[in-house]
Amino acid sequence: GIAGVFVAILLGALFTRQIVAPLGKVTAAAKRVAQGDFGQKVDIGGSGELDELGKSFNSMAATLNRDQQLRRNMVADIAHELRTPLTILQGNVEAMLDGLLPPDKENLTSLHQETLLLTRLVDDLRTLSLAEAGQIKFQSKVTDLKELSSQVIDNFRTQLSARNITVALEAPDNLPEVWVDPERTAQVLRNLLSNAMHYTPEGGSIKVRLNSAADG
Length: 216
Fold this sequence. Notes:
two-stranded parallel sheet, mainly alpha, 67% helix, two-stranded antiparallel sheet
């Protein structure tokens, strides 16, 4: 009888340890997650409810880590988006002050469009949580991409001329109109042109080509 009691105590201790040890791992990892370290992962092993607990914790930590990275990328992307129109505004205003660009209605309209873009980007910062959930609304309409691309390129003319960089727009005459958000599409074009201008040496050239899917 005494031997049976000792065996029962020993088995109970082993069984308790099998439960407490995995829970201790989860608790320690949960504390690190609470401190902002979302790269945690626990390896409980075995089967049953404890194994499911470990998998659920790992899935939660991975989701939090992914959301944090998405948030960082979104902030970095918007910061880059803000830099482009600010650069355009600064370059064109300086050109007007130096007398290189006339402050006429056409050029002022172009600057006004850049301020509208800045306003929208600031609004995007306020709705960052919606962006993370993929719920930013697009204001799509039928758009002439050739005309839109031409307007975006014109906004870069002053900066391109200062570096003696030429830019050419190639598009077929029968290019169909598309259903897109023109402002967000313009953002993409601005980013592409800004990057191209940054990596194109002085005296180089940039070519923007538009074509329909049917044309390959």
